[in-house]
Amino acid sequence: MSSGQGATVAGLFQEVRARFTDADLDDPATEARILVGGLLHLSTTELVTRGVEAVTADRAEVVRAAIARRLNHEPVHRILGEREFYGLPFSLSPATLEPRPDTEILVDTVLPHARHLVSAHGHIHILDIGTGTGAICLALLHECPQAKGIGSDISGEALETARANAVRNGLDARFETIQGSWFDAIHGRFHVIVSNPPYIESNVISTLAPEVKNFDPPAALDGGLDGLDAYRAIAKDAAQFLHKDGVVGVEIGYDQRETVTSVFEGAGFFLIEAARDYGRNDRVLVFKHHR
């Protein structure tokens, strides 16, 4: 139906779920709950407890327009314009990756090292290379009040998004941005260097799900012919920007543990920790440098 007359919260939810089920989405009920709840500003509980409440015609039209966007493969969180990461809300933009739950493993893994460095130094500096939304660095700053951070990115639009997210989460006093490729515009030394760099092989990108290849920025996906270009760039120069007891933490593709480790070992680093994601795939590597 095209009119919003008579629409209720429960009715809209059921309508969206039915459309998503017909479209054979993997998890239509969850996606419908996130989308309708997000657009109507209702929690999961409120979708039930306020199910009989009427929805205005214009809000119903917004929800129905969002159905069409999702059926065109636009991810739910891109439609909402934000996603939660490590308990914090992050605005998205076309120039940023959508922060995903598996990347929280990078924060989980690096955080104990950061806290150990705080106990040794009193305060620490963090560099997030290819910061995008700022999610990784800002999550670490939120968990580590004794830290300051820099988010670097080649995209000015991404850095605008990261700065807005710092303000939104009350972390802008401890976060700054620098525009540039890898370490080109970076000065000083850091206790923690983190990155979720592009790591997909160039010739694989065309085979990715449309939700990824059509909506994530290509520069944040394309890791070169063998997917390792970013790791080579980081490993080559990281040591000169790292305190002698500092760590480098990177997210990797599921099959890249050995190759990325060898790239870093070739630059004088050694692996101190590896972590797997929720699907039990290798996802995070943490390195120190031989000094």
- Provide the CATH top-level class of the largest domain: Alpha Beta
- Helix-strand makeup class: alpha/beta
Order the strands across the largest sheet as they lie in space.
Answer: 5-4-3-6-7-9-8
First-to-last CA distance: 68 Å
| Overall pLDDT metric | 91
Going by CATH, the homologous superfamily of the largest domain would be Vaccinia Virus protein VP39
Main sheet overview: 7 strands, mixed
Which residues sit in consecutive blocks of at least 5 with pLDDT less than 50? none
Shape field: globular
Topology, number of strands? 9
Helicity level: 40-55%
Approximate strand percentage: 15-25%
What is the domain total for the residues?
2
CATH topology of the largest domain: Rossmann fold
- The number of distinct helices, counting runs of at least 4 residues, comes to 11
**N-to-C SSE string, H for helix and E for strand:** HHHHHEEHEHEHEEHHEHEE
Architecture of the largest domain in CATH? Answer: 3-Layer(aba) Sandwich
Our Rg estimate from Cα atoms comes to 21 Å
